Amino acid sequence: MKTTDYIENWLKENLSTKRFSHSLGCAQCALELAKLYNQDEKKAYLAGLIHDMAKNLEDDALYKIITEEIKTGYSKHELKNSKTYHAIAGAYLAKKIFEIEDDEIISAIRNHTIGKVNMTTFDKIIFLADKIEPNERDEKYSKKIFKILEKNKGTTGLDLAILKCTKETVKSLVKRKLYICPETIDVYNYLIESVGYLSDDDD
Hints:
Layout: H1 4-14, H2 17-36, H3 41-50, H4 59-70, H5 85-98, H6 103-110, H7 121-132, H8 139-151, H9 154-175, H10 182-195
């Protein structure tokens, strides 16, 4: 695996200033969440750091990587909204460019955008860190998510926080008239059945 210094330099050169700032914020947030949920802090930092490594590639380039190099491991629905491309390609490029072979890190990168049913705790941490990191995300929104985590301990808090994020994602996609992957709905329905609806205070 490439060193953290190498990875940070690569990201700084290949991401926009705002995206690099987001990546650093996500890495630090992932580390802090890892502390709370007894996950590997170094791995969480690394996964948060590189989760968006493919974000600044053009959609056409990402589509080509997915369909011509990766070829498997994604649904046809994920190709209907270009916003999902970077997660698929990023997991692949993390192996190719940074020589990362850790399955937890690769899975977290792959699933940080849409999520999936039965995510691991590590997956959930990176998913949330992406949504609530302090550098570029909306502070008011992040505080709502942290409030959910504080009020609900353990993995239940993580699930309720992800449910809130998924709900807001669906609302945003509808508002922008964008395609909603069925996988997103699957995550929402799974969490509703697992942990129930959010209370009015959290909503």
